[in-house]
Amino acid sequence: VQNSPHGRLSLPGGRELVRQYKAVRLVKRKSGNVEAVRYSYVLPHEGELVIPEAGVKIQNSRCSFSDLKRPRDNLEAFFDLVCLPQALTVRNFRPGDRFQPLGMCGHKKVKDLFIEKKVPLPVRRTLPLVLRGEEILWIPQYGRSDVAKTGSQTREVLKVRLTFLNA
Length: 167
Hints:
Layout: E1 6-11, E2 15-20, E3 23-28, E4 40-44, E5 47-51, E6 56-64, E7 76-80, E8 87-91, E9 98-99, E10 108-109, H1 110-116, H2 121-126, E11 129-132, E12 135-139, E13 143-144, E14 156-164
Antiparallel strand pairs: 1-2, 2-3, 4-8, 5-6, 6-14, 7-14, 8-11, 9-10, 11-12, 12-13
């Protein structure tokens, strides 16, 4: 389909021509089902979690709200600790996922956010989402939920930072 932002063309010699939005790359064809990546981990309030499927590490720490400035970049988020359970969940995207973007009353489909931000399909499959129960709190690099946001009543904060393992 000519108007599709994604596409693949198989070539001889085990290669593929892959289109992801405006970029076109020649890659080695992968064997097996690339759609099958599915993971879920428990994320405690203190420490770190390595997610090999995504090639990332998530580090958590508690701190006083008065010690904080702002997140350094879109790889860091702060949450009001009072609004969180003892452990969070980190998992990749599932069809039908929705979240409540910061400052918005309603919910938005995560798939729509990925399309708007032009997130390549391979990234969508493995990108970690941070959840409180079934509620998405944070999509690193792309969106922060209105749930568990910090404010004037916040005393203690959970600071969450994502880093890439190969960076």
